Amino acid sequence: MIKCESDPNFDPLKFDFDKDPARVADTAKLNDATGTYLASFAAHGGKLLLFQGLSDPVFSANDLVRWYKQVVEVTSGGDLEATRRFVRMFIIPGMTHCGDGQAFDDFDPLAAIEGWINQDKAPDSLAAGSKAFPGKHQPICAYPTQAAYGGKGNPDEIASYSCRG
Protein backbone atom coordinates (compact mmCIF):
# COMPACT_ATOMS: atom_id res chain seq x y z
CA MET A 1 0.00 0.00 0.00
CA ILE A 2 1.27 3.45 -0.86
CA LYS A 3 1.41 5.71 2.15
CA CYS A 4 1.25 9.45 1.47
CA GLU A 5 1.76 11.86 4.30
CA SER A 6 1.83 15.62 4.07
CA ASP A 7 4.36 17.77 5.85
CA PRO A 8 2.76 21.05 6.99
CA ASN A 9 6.24 22.55 7.46
CA PHE A 10 7.42 21.74 3.93
CA ASP A 11 8.58 24.81 2.00
CA PRO A 12 8.69 24.03 -1.75
CA LEU A 13 11.02 27.00 -2.26
CA LYS A 14 13.62 25.16 -0.18
CA PHE A 15 13.36 21.87 -2.08
CA ASP A 16 16.85 20.36 -2.35
CA PHE A 17 17.17 18.40 -5.61
CA ASP A 18 20.13 16.49 -4.20
CA LYS A 19 18.36 15.27 -1.04
CA ASP A 20 14.59 15.71 -1.33
CA PRO A 21 13.46 13.59 -4.32
CA ALA A 22 12.97 10.60 -2.01
CA ARG A 23 10.34 12.67 -0.15
CA VAL A 24 8.08 12.59 -3.20
CA ALA A 25 8.69 8.96 -4.20
CA ASP A 26 5.38 7.71 -2.76
CA THR A 27 3.26 10.26 -4.56
CA ALA A 28 5.33 9.78 -7.72
CA LYS A 29 4.05 6.19 -7.82
CA LEU A 30 0.54 7.61 -8.05
CA ASN A 31 1.06 10.72 -10.14
CA ASP A 32 3.93 10.16 -12.58
CA ALA A 33 2.96 8.82 -15.98
CA THR A 34 5.97 6.56 -16.36
CA GLY A 35 4.46 3.07 -16.44
CA THR A 36 4.94 1.25 -19.74
CA TYR A 37 3.05 -1.98 -19.11
CA LEU A 38 -0.29 -1.31 -20.76
CA ALA A 39 -1.48 -4.88 -21.39
CA SER A 40 -4.54 -4.56 -19.13
CA PHE A 41 -5.44 -1.25 -20.77
CA ALA A 42 -5.15 -2.84 -24.23
CA ALA A 43 -7.04 -6.00 -23.20
CA HIS A 44 -9.97 -3.88 -22.07
CA GLY A 45 -10.17 -2.14 -25.47
CA GLY A 46 -8.31 1.02 -24.44
CA LYS A 47 -7.09 3.37 -27.14
CA LEU A 48 -4.38 5.95 -26.51
CA LEU A 49 -3.54 8.80 -28.86
CA LEU A 50 -0.41 10.81 -28.02
CA PHE A 51 0.91 13.95 -29.67
CA GLN A 52 3.93 16.06 -28.92
CA GLY A 53 5.57 19.08 -30.49
CA LEU A 54 9.09 18.43 -31.69
CA SER A 55 10.05 22.02 -30.81
CA ASP A 56 8.46 22.02 -27.36
CA PRO A 57 10.82 23.97 -25.06
CA VAL A 58 9.22 22.44 -21.94
CA PHE A 59 9.05 18.70 -22.65
CA SER A 60 11.33 16.84 -25.03
CA ALA A 61 9.69 14.79 -27.76
CA ASN A 62 12.63 12.43 -27.33
CA ASP A 63 11.32 11.51 -23.87
CA LEU A 64 7.93 10.59 -25.30
CA VAL A 65 9.53 8.57 -28.10
CA ARG A 66 11.66 6.73 -25.51
CA TRP A 67 8.55 6.02 -23.40
CA TYR A 68 6.66 4.77 -26.48
CA LYS A 69 9.52 2.44 -27.43
CA GLN A 70 9.43 1.06 -23.89
CA VAL A 71 5.69 0.42 -24.24
CA VAL A 72 6.44 -1.52 -27.44
CA GLU A 73 9.07 -3.61 -25.62
CA VAL A 74 7.33 -4.09 -22.26
CA THR A 75 3.72 -4.52 -23.41
CA SER A 76 4.13 -6.06 -26.85
CA GLY A 77 7.48 -7.85 -26.65
CA GLY A 78 8.98 -5.57 -29.28
CA ASP A 79 6.08 -5.90 -31.72
CA LEU A 80 5.37 -2.38 -32.97
CA GLU A 81 2.28 -3.42 -34.93
CA ALA A 82 0.77 -5.03 -31.82
CA THR A 83 1.29 -1.77 -29.93
CA ARG A 84 -0.19 0.28 -32.78
CA ARG A 85 -3.47 -1.60 -32.26
CA PHE A 86 -4.02 0.46 -29.09
CA VAL A 87 -1.48 3.34 -29.09
CA ARG A 88 -0.77 5.89 -31.81
CA MET A 89 1.81 8.62 -31.35
CA PHE A 90 2.17 11.77 -33.43
CA ILE A 91 5.29 13.96 -33.30
CA ILE A 92 4.59 17.38 -34.85
CA PRO A 93 7.63 19.03 -36.44
CA GLY A 94 8.02 22.68 -35.46
CA MET A 95 5.21 22.65 -32.88
CA THR A 96 6.02 24.21 -29.52
CA HIS A 97 4.29 23.60 -26.18
CA CYS A 98 0.50 23.13 -26.61
CA GLY A 99 0.59 24.28 -30.23
CA ASP A 100 1.99 27.23 -32.14
CA GLY A 101 5.39 27.51 -33.75
CA GLN A 102 6.32 26.99 -37.37
CA ALA A 103 4.16 23.90 -37.57
CA PHE A 104 1.08 22.20 -38.89
CA ASP A 105 -0.54 22.45 -35.47
CA ASP A 106 -4.21 22.83 -36.39
CA PHE A 107 -5.54 19.27 -36.18
CA ASP A 108 -8.35 17.45 -34.37
CA PRO A 109 -7.13 14.62 -32.12
CA LEU A 110 -10.59 14.29 -30.54
CA ALA A 111 -12.17 13.38 -33.89
CA ALA A 112 -9.33 10.92 -34.48
CA ILE A 113 -9.81 9.09 -31.17
CA GLU A 114 -13.60 9.11 -31.60
CA GLY A 115 -13.21 7.51 -35.04
CA TRP A 116 -10.87 4.94 -33.59
CA ILE A 117 -13.20 4.06 -30.72
CA ASN A 118 -16.55 4.30 -32.53
CA GLN A 119 -15.66 3.03 -36.02
CA ASP A 120 -12.50 1.04 -35.19
CA LYS A 121 -10.58 3.27 -37.65
CA ALA A 122 -7.11 3.72 -36.18
CA PRO A 123 -5.62 7.05 -37.31
CA ASP A 124 -2.56 6.64 -39.53
CA SER A 125 -2.44 10.42 -39.92
CA LEU A 126 -4.11 13.60 -38.74
CA ALA A 127 -5.15 16.21 -41.30
CA ALA A 128 -3.44 19.44 -40.31
CA GLY A 129 -3.43 23.09 -41.27
CA SER A 130 -1.39 25.95 -39.93
CA LYS A 131 -1.51 29.63 -39.04
CA ALA A 132 2.21 29.70 -39.80
CA PHE A 133 1.64 28.40 -43.35
CA PRO A 134 -1.73 29.85 -44.48
CA GLY A 135 -3.48 27.87 -47.19
CA LYS A 136 -1.23 24.83 -46.76
CA HIS A 137 -2.34 21.47 -45.41
CA GLN A 138 -0.34 18.39 -44.64
CA PRO A 139 -0.81 15.12 -42.78
CA ILE A 140 0.77 14.54 -39.38
CA CYS A 141 1.75 10.88 -39.60
CA ALA A 142 1.64 8.29 -36.86
CA TYR A 143 5.08 7.39 -35.53
CA PRO A 144 7.36 6.06 -36.93
CA THR A 145 6.20 7.34 -40.31
CA GLN A 146 6.59 10.89 -41.65
CA ALA A 147 4.78 12.94 -44.27
CA ALA A 148 6.46 12.83 -47.67
CA TYR A 149 5.51 14.80 -50.77
CA GLY A 150 4.83 12.41 -53.64
CA GLY A 151 6.25 14.70 -56.32
CA LYS A 152 2.89 15.19 -58.02
CA GLY A 153 -0.03 17.42 -57.25
CA ASN A 154 -0.31 20.64 -55.32
CA PRO A 155 2.19 20.65 -52.41
CA ASP A 156 -0.33 22.71 -50.40
CA GLU A 157 -2.86 19.84 -50.37
CA ILE A 158 -2.94 16.81 -48.10
CA ALA A 159 -3.68 14.46 -51.00
CA SER A 160 -0.19 15.18 -52.38
CA TYR A 161 1.44 13.53 -49.34
CA SER A 162 1.74 10.04 -47.97
CA CYS A 163 3.05 8.67 -44.71
CA ARG A 164 6.35 6.85 -45.17
CA GLY A 165 8.87 5.40 -42.86
Task: Give a quick rundown of the structure.
By secondary structure, the chain is an alpha+beta fold. It has helices at residues 25-31, 39-43, 61-76, 80-84, 109-119; strands spanning 48-53, 87-92, 125-128, 138-141, 146-149, 161-164. It has one domain.
Describe this structure in words.
This protein has 165 residues and is α+β, with helices and mostly antiparallel strands. The protein has one domain. 27% of the residues lie in helices and 17% in strands. It has helices at 25-31, 39-43, 61-76, 80-84, 109-119; strands spanning 48-53, 87-92, 125-128, 138-141, 146-149, 161-164.
Task: Give the SSE order as H and E letters.
Answer: HHEHHEHEEEE
Q: Which range best describes the helical content: under 10%, 10-25%, 25-40%, 40-55%, 55-70% or over 70%?
A: 25-40%
What's the total number of strands? Answer: 6
Total separate domains: 1
Could you say which structural class the secondary elements and strand pairing correspond to?
alpha+beta
Treating each run of at least 4 consecutive H or I residues as one helix, how many helices? 5
- Main β-sheet, in a few words? 2 strands, parallel
Radius of gyration: 19 Å
Outline the low-pLDDT stretches: none
How much beta, percentage-wise? 15-25%
Cα end-to-end separation:
44 Å
Mean pLDDT level: 92
Strand order within the widest beta sheet: 1-2
What is the molecular shape?
A: globular
Layout of helices and strands, plus pairs?
Layout: H1 25-31, H2 39-43, E1 48-53, H3 61-76, H4 80-84, E2 87-92, H5 109-119, E3 125-128, E4 138-141, E5 146-149, E6 161-164
Parallel strand pairs: 1-2
Antiparallel strand pairs: 3-4, 5-6
